[in-house]
Each structure stands twice: as structure tokens, then as C-alpha cells.
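Lab notebook: predicted structure, single chain.

Context: the supervisor wants predicted structures on file for every construct in the current expression panel, including those that have not yet been purified. This is the next one on the list. No modifications to the sequence; it matches the entry in the shared construct table.
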Amino acid sequence: MPGDDPASSPVTTLDDDIAPARRLRPSVIIATVFFVLLAGFWGWIWYYHLSGYGERDMPDRLDDMAWTSDAEEACFTADARIAALPGAHNAADANERADIIESATAELEAMIDELEGIVPTGDSRDARISAAWLEDYRIFASDRYRYADTLRVDPSARFLVTEKQGRYITAPIDRFARVNEMEGCMTPGDV
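Prediction complete. Output recorded below exactly as produced.
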């Protein structure tokens, strides 16, 4: 038979049985590297945040936190005294609400005075940032008094606080308290 002659049949080699290798295009390699780096970046962010390293590296983090437990105790005591007052939102009229706000602010000022005796003093970094925190707290207290005075004249007045670096002054007060593990010293929301 004509097709049985080995000399007439095409020669096959081992190389003919192997499919040609697919080359990866540069765009696929670049996209893969990009997505791996992006996933690694977000993984690092999540680890950094969830592990607590983010707050320990904040500029407001104190070097020596020995006094913060005493400060938080003073804050919890003041919060309890403020909570014992009637709720300002439940006041019968604007004058009564202003009276309640002034009483609560007096408790807040007493807390700030007590904190001044607890925070570090001198020229250390901790003393400087703690003094700035208390100064911000005093501004917040004066904002509360100003609101109470305005409320007596305009019952529909809104509570506005001073801005600091484009944000409400409560933000740096609360951030300092939070990063230094004094959540009890965050600004009260009683107004």
C-alpha cells in the first residue's frame, strides 16, 4: 500500500508533540505585580491599624503614661457628676437648658482643674502636649458657656465649638484622650 511505506510517511519527532510555550505579555506581568503590591499595601495597613501600632505612633502619644490612669479616674468622676444632672435636652425651656449646661460645664471645669494637678509639668514633650490638651479643653468649656449665654437670648441657637486647624476643637481633645488610653476623658456629649 502506498501509505504503508515508512519512507513516504512524514517524519514525526518528539518536538512536534509539544505545544509551543505561551509567552506572558508584559501587560499581564505588570498588572499581576500591581495587584500583589496593592493587596500587600492594604494588608499592611489593616495589620498596622488592627494591631494598635497606628495609635502608638501618633504624635500625641505620651512617652510616660504613668499619670493617665489617675486622669481617667478624675474624668470618670466628672462624667458621673454630669450624668447625675438633668438632661439638657429634656429642659422645659431655653433658660432651664442653659442653667443645666452651665452646671455641667462647671463640673467640666472642675475636672480640668483637677487634671492640671495630674499632668506632667516642666519642659518635657509630654508636659507641652498635655498643656495644649488642657488649653483646648478650656476653650471647649468656654464654648459651652458662650452657648448657654446665647441660648438665653435665642432659644433656637445652635451649639458651635471653636475650630482648630480646620476641625472642631473636640477632635484633638478626643484624639489625645483616645491615643493615651483615657477614653473617659473624651469630650462629653451632653449638650
